[in-house]
Amino acid sequence: MSITRFAxxxxxxxxxxxxxxxxxxxxxxxxxxxxxxxxGWDSGDQRSECTLVPxxxxxxxxxxxxxxxxxSRIKATGAKTGAxxxxxxxPGQSGLTMPRSIADSxxxxxxxxxxxxxxxxxxxxYSADLxxxxxxxEPDLGxxxxxxxxxxxxxxxxxxxxxxxxxxxxxxxxxxxxxxRDLDRIRQALGEDKIGYYGVSWGTALGAQxxxxxxxxxxxxxxxxxxxxxxxxxxxxxxxATAGENTFHEFASWIARYDVVYHFGSTEPVxxxxxxxxxxxxxxxxxxxxxxxxxxxxxxxxxxxxIRDGRAPVVGKTTTGFGWDGEPQAFNHFQQTALLCxxxxxxxxxxTVWQHRLDRxxxxxxAGGYGLYEQLCVGWPLDARPWSFAKGQSPLQLxxxxxxxxxxxxxxxxxxxKIGGTLMTVEDDAHxxxxxxxxxxxxxxxxxxxxxxxxxxxxxxxxKP
Length: 465
Prior knowledge:
The radius of gyration is 22 Å and the shape is globular. The longest helix is centred in the middle third of the chain and has 25 residues. The two termini are 32 Å apart. It has 465 residues and is an alpha/beta fold. Strands 1-2-3-4-6-5-7-8-9-10-11 form an eleven-stranded mixed beta sheet, with helices on both faces. It has two domains: 231 residues, Rossmann fold (3-Layer(aba) Sandwich); 158 residues, no CATH class.
């Protein structure tokens, strides 16, 4: 896997060029159809409007250099009562198209009385970005050779140091509190005294940070697939691997129930042993199929049976962290690395990270090797500035997914103890799935009335073969 070289200059967002007259203007910002000004935008989209909001490069020097943050919106279809800012997570993930995805989802009713507002965080997509290229090595089969892994880690660390040295102010300010302050500049540009906020995954940490800094300017806040309140990439890898190990055994149990279809065995231990034997034979291909969401189980079980029987080609598969790949630059790996390593007090030396990996694989033989976040920070040259969240008074709805391995349910409980709010549980393992479920009506009710819920949502059913 390699990161794309980004061409947008640090102090400008060149892909978003005011090429046509503005279609709307409010509170000092000029709105234009995104399809007319944003390179690569869906030409048929006549709802989404875009603008650029200038913010300080460094809030410690508010009158110093400025950078642009790309913002999008879909205006309320009914009587407007406010605006809801949206963030899909990452970090490193673009959010500019999120208003469209929410408007077209089960949570689309939010957009009746609220403008839906998306944005690309600094360092991502159409917002001010860096021309940094970092090569990430492909994962080896099984346990990688230590010296080979060390060489790869040192190569990545050298590229990171080069980028930090070339753009120290920009990289130093890739932090969650800085992006929360960017959010408040967006609020001001929208002309809103208070804003709603809907964040997913890392976007929940961004929301918690914004609420901790600007609670007086929060109307209502909903956080889905909640991060832990204390960022530590070592603990992230441990928790996600533990959840992945559990998912593997649940998957094996599901396959056992359908032995008449898949012929791996009729009990979980027998199926688990068969799958691990298959992994030992075929390596990364099978390894990437063993701890996936329930919605993929039927297809994966069919592929695994085909590989076992020699009916499927064996091709390598790698897994990544949060986010999706898209155009233009829908996901920025360097921005993710900078945010995580600027804020996680995790080890920076290779030997410690390597030993943690070996210990994790010994403890969790299936999913222990899935961890990828701790290794990102090997050789990171800047000191960590940990998150600091606090309780607030604004209405807060948390949403946790009972079986999810990406942001385990325990993180939502930890965040609730730290910042308060009411926790709604979704009985699925799908990351940030609330907007795709009928119970997303609770989201609409929350943003319209402020009424939270602690009810459980059934989630999508586990598929059958």
